């Protein structure tokens, strides 16, 4: 039975994403779920060999990328993303039995969750003071322990802890979606499907034009970039890593040529190629016509 870590404790959206991966057949059978206190801790369990993989959130349609996940993937021994899934995310306001919305003075929440419902909270619980928790499920645990009056959490966490639901389906934006990824030790990428995502991290030389040259490697080969983001390296002011997602697979010739060209001039960390949940952007151009043309030239065929 494979062991899979997730950003816990039990009751988080990440555990729900792990369940979805199980239902989609990402594993050969049942898995042992291992809760970890943070995204980085979940990924480090792979590096130490204590688990076979981990599920972590990587991007929210409302708040953007999850910095803790990006940073943990960029440093330390390389890991690889093998699959992704998405969840529509709405929150549940939980409290101990007998509490009303008007009673709430302290509201526990994971920062990403708090950001996604700040407008709802301002309208419906203006008296509530924010209290930072380590995760969505941890917010519910803080309420159960009496540390906070209410929590922005999940229905699953409320059921597990016997808490009362004060409000359900809470969200500032319709169809708020979070993308989760399944990460393992480096290995052969899943087979190309024609609707794939490839992700890399670049550490560019600190010289004029280095970022533009990197972008040009994608543009000149018709490879569509779908995400461009920078994060500080934490090694000094003004030093950044660049996280890039593109449409296509490492086995697509245009993507492979782009990666080779980048490797010649900068440090590239390959995070993986895997099937995208939803097709976004333009697939890379086919290499077959050009390859056939070159083959005929080599054969000495005239009038090409």
Question: What would a concise description of this structure say?
Answer:
The protein has 304 residues and is α/β, with parallel strands linked by helices.
Q: What is the mean predicted local confidence, pLDDT?
A: 94
Low-confidence stretches: none
What would you call the shape? elongated
Structural class determined from secondary elements: alpha/beta
Rg (CA only): 22 Å
Series of secondary-structure elements, N-terminal to C-terminal: EHEHEEHEEEHHEHEHEEEHEEHEH
The helix tally amounts to 10
Termini, distance in Å?
57 Å
Biggest sheet architecture: 6 strands, mixed
Beta-strand content bin: 25-35%
Can you give the helix content as a percent range?
A: 25-40%
Say how many strands there are: 15
Describe, in plain words, how this protein is organized in 3D.
The chain is α/β, with parallel strands linked by helices. The chain is 30% helix and 31% strand. The protein contains ten helices and 15 strands. The protein has helices spanning 13-23, 39-47, 67-74, 111-116, 118-124, 136-144, 155-161, 210-219, 253-265, 288-298, and strands at 3-7, 32-36, 53-60, 64-65, 80-88, 91-95, 106-109, 129-132, 150-153, 164-170, 177-184, 196-203, 225-232, 240-247, 267-275. The strands form three sheets. Strands 1, 2, 3, 4, 5 and 11 form a six-stranded mixed beta sheet that branches. Strands 8-7-9-6-10 form a five-stranded mixed beta sheet. A four-stranded antiparallel beta sheet has the order 13-14-12-15, with helices on both faces. Helix 1 links the parallel strand 1 and strand 2. Helix 2 (39-47) runs parallel beside helix 3 (67-74). The longest helix has 13 residues, at 253-265. It is elongated and about 85 Å long. The mean pLDDT is 94.
């Amino acid at each position: 039975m494979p062991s899979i870590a997730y950003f816990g404790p039990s009751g988080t959206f990440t555990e729900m994403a792990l369940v979805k991966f199980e239902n989609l057949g990402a594993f050969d059978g049942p898995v042992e779920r291992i809760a970890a206190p943070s995204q980085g801790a979940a990924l480090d369990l792979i590096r130490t060999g204590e688990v076979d993989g981990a599920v972590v959130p990587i991007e929210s349609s409302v708040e953007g990328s999850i910095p803790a996940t990006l940073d943990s993937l960029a440093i330390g021994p390389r890991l690889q993303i093998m699959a992704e899934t998405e969840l529509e995310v709405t929150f549940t306001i939980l409290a101990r039995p007998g509490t009303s919305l008007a009673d709430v003075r302290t509201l526990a929440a994971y920062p990403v969750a708090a950001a996604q419902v700040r407008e709802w909270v301002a309208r419906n619980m203006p008296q509530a003071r924010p209290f930072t928790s380590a995760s969505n499920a941890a917010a519910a645990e803080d309420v159960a322990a009496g540390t906070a009056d209410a929590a922005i959490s999940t229905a699953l966490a409320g059921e597990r802890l016997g808490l009362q639901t004060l409000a359900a389906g809470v969200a500032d934006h319709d169809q708020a979606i979070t993308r989760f990824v399944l990460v393992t030790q480096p290995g052969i990428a899943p087979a190309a499907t024609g609707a794939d995502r490839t992700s890399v991290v670049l550490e560019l030389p600190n010289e004029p034009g280095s970022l533009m040259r990197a972008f040009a490697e994608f543009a000149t080969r018709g490879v569509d970039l779908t995400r461009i983001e920078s994060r500080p390296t934490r090694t000094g002011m003004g030093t950044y890593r660049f996280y890039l997602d593109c449409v296509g697979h490492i086995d697509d010739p245009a993507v492979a040529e782009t990666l080779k060209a980048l490797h010649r001039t900068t440090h590239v960390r390959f995070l993986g190629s895997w099937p995208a949940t939803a097709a976004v952007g333009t697939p890379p151009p086919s290499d077959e016509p050009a390859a056939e043309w070159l083959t005929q030239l080599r054969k000495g065929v005239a009038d090409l």
